């Protein structure tokens, strides 16, 4: 039994590695396939990069490639950077900070690109999205709310368009190197198009000046929040169970006696502070709380944990498994590690109270066993928990 945690961790790690080996559902995600070498701005608008198109059709996203003399990664009017992968990458005006020619129209300009995925996304399937981006060297503005929007049909961006993308970033102002962004999304089903850009309404643009260098004032990207993008990928990860239709019982333990068979153990015959215990039936440890994003137990958790200590002291023959769980926000492997660390924190506390190691086992499941929907704050709160169950005696 001591190997339960190790086995589960290795199993889920293999799932993650398996997902990474799946086919990238974004065609030409590294922008390596092109029609001709770029020699002017707006190469995506004229269909110069395979599978990708500009939206709206009259915007002019740029293409940089080592084959070009004017638009190479090391020689262009936006900024120098080595491609994150391969020889080419994308350049987008996300927002305009100011207009040198005092044009109001220019202040409302922004660019997006769109691609059709290799296959539609499937309902309740979870996918890992990754991309790399960098603020252009000569740009003196940065923005938040760069996003990735997945839709069932192609969309046309106009000056009135706004949407809430499935993936949305905070401020990115790193220059000269690539920032890797990784996130997961749960598909509604049927999403077949990916659009990259910024989707807030024009009145809510979030832009700030970050690096004003007069030496770059004549450069194309200077008065704009101009970003480079490279190496986009979308891989299948797993399938999530359907959310529970009803609310879990509160408190989540059995208050009435089960139908006895005559072969019950002593710990099954009378209610405990957690109600009646049944073999392999998880019980949520309510009010076991941790520091945000960490596995450090808060002081108020001891009241609940001491109930478990008393049960373990009363029934000397029981063994328990402690399991940690998270919501699905964040990276799957980080969630898995956090869930196991929190289960171990409970394990360590019980040992500190005199419970022997041989009676305790712990493991983490990440977000793979939700109690409720992860689409609401209340549901995510229920899913962030530590449970235990009795596995029997020797």
Automatic annotation (TrEMBL):
Residues 277-394 form the OmpA-like domain. It comes from Raineya orbicola. The lineage of its organism: Bacteria, Pseudomonadati, Bacteroidota, Cytophagia, Cytophagales. Signal peptide: none annotated. The keyword Membrane applies. Keywords: Cell outer membrane, Membrane. It is found in: Cell outer membrane. Its main location: membrane. SUPFAM superfamilies: OmpA-like. Gene3D superfamilies: OmpA-like domain. GO terms for cellular component: cell outer membrane. This is OmpA family. The keyword Membrane applies.
